[in-house]
User: Which sequence fits this backbone?
């Protein structure tokens, strides 16, 4: 069986992990903000529609 190639040691593993975590956190935050904006927009439309139907 062939041996695995050695891992690159250019960057410290901890820094790489932190970079990955930072990127994942940033993407998660952006996704959650987009969801919040969409929900607020839908709620605003629903409230406007309710106001128009009552009046």
Assistant:
């Amino acid at each position: 069986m062939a041996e695995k190639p050695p891992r690159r040691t250019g960057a410290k593993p901890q820094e790489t992990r932190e970079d990955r975590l930072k990127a994942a956190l940033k993407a998660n935050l952006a996704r959650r903000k987009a969801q919040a904006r969409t929900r607020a927009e839908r709620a605003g439309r629903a409230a406007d529609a309710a106001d128009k139907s009552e009046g």
Observations:
- The mean pLDDT is 85.
